[in-house]
């Protein structure tokens, strides 16, 4: 499957969840491990990449607003924040056994799994705070939360992603 098709599928699934609005983060987090267990290794790699691509697109927009590279737009930021909060729950369970080939993911993920999971959970926790901070319209709180989320992304990239 093409990356763009996967990205569109993930976006559609996320949009559907966002419409349902019934504690979607918890629901999707509970659902994914079963899905991942049944999924081929190369598909797990594709889905985690698709999630990261859409996170990058949406978090890039938030980061540009937070660093005054583009004007703050509350509606756009709210949409970006919802996507990032939701998508941040996706990758963790697609790093199953054998998914260490043809990837920028370092082998240390599987030999330091507890630390990797902790960093992933930290990132999810920070991303989960973004939607509420955007709704307050408090610019300095927004900037701080975007920076804290970026730091949590970077902590994992520094240790566990090949350059
Ligand atoms: C982004 C993006 C990332 C993070 C990271 C934060 O916008 O695509 O991977 O921020 O660079 O340090």
Q: Describe it for me?
A:
With 163 residues, the chain is mainly α. It has eight helices and no strands. α3 (41-66) runs antiparallel to α4 (74-87) and α4 packs antiparallel against α7. The protein starts with a helix and ends with a helix. The mean pLDDT is 88. Bound molecules: ascorbic acid. Residues 56, 59-60, 63, 150, 153-154 line the site of ascorbic acid. Ascorbic acid binds at residues 56, 59-60, 63, 150, 153-154.
Topology:
Elements: H1 3-20, H2 24-37, H3 41-66, H4 74-87, H5 108-111, H6 113-128, H7 130-136, H8 139-160
Helix pairs in contact: 1-3, 1-4, 3-4, 3-8, 4-6, 4-7, 6-8
Bound molecules: ascorbic acid (ASC).
- Taking pLDDT < 50 over at least 5 consecutive residues as the criterion, the unreliable ranges are none
- Average pLDDT for all residues: 88
> How far from one another are the termini?
25 Å
Percent in strands: under 5%
* Main beta sheet strand tally, sense and closure: none
What shape does the CA trace take?
globular
The sequence of SSEs as H and E is: HHHHHHHH
Figure out the total of helices. 8
Q: Specify the helix fraction band.
A: over 70%
Ligands: ascorbic acid
Radius of gyration: 16 Å
Global structural class? mainly alpha
Total strands: the figure is 0
Q: What labels would you give this structure?
A:
74% helix, 163 residues, single chain, mainly alpha, binds ascorbic acid
């Amino acid at each position: 499957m093409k990356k763009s098709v996967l990205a569109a599928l993930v976006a559609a699934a996320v949009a559907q969840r966002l419409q349902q609005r019934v504690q979607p983060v918890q629901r999707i987090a509970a659902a994914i491990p079963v899905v991942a267990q049944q999924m081929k290794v190369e598909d797990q790699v594709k889905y985690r990449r698709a999630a990261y691509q859409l996170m990058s697109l949406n978090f890039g927009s938030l980061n540009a607003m937070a660093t005054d590279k583009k004007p703050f737009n509350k509606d756009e930021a709210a949409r970006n924040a919802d996507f990032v909060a939701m998508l941040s729950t996706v990758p963790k369970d697609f790093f199953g056994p054998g998914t260490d080939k043809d990837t920028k993911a370092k082998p240390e993920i599987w030999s330091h799994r507890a630390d990797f999971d902790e960093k992933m959970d930290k990132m999810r926790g920070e991303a989960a705070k973004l939607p509420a901070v955007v709704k307050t319209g408090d610019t300095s709180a927004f900037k701080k939360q975007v920076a804290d989320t970026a730091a949590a992304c970077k902590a994992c990239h520094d240790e566990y992603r090949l350059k």
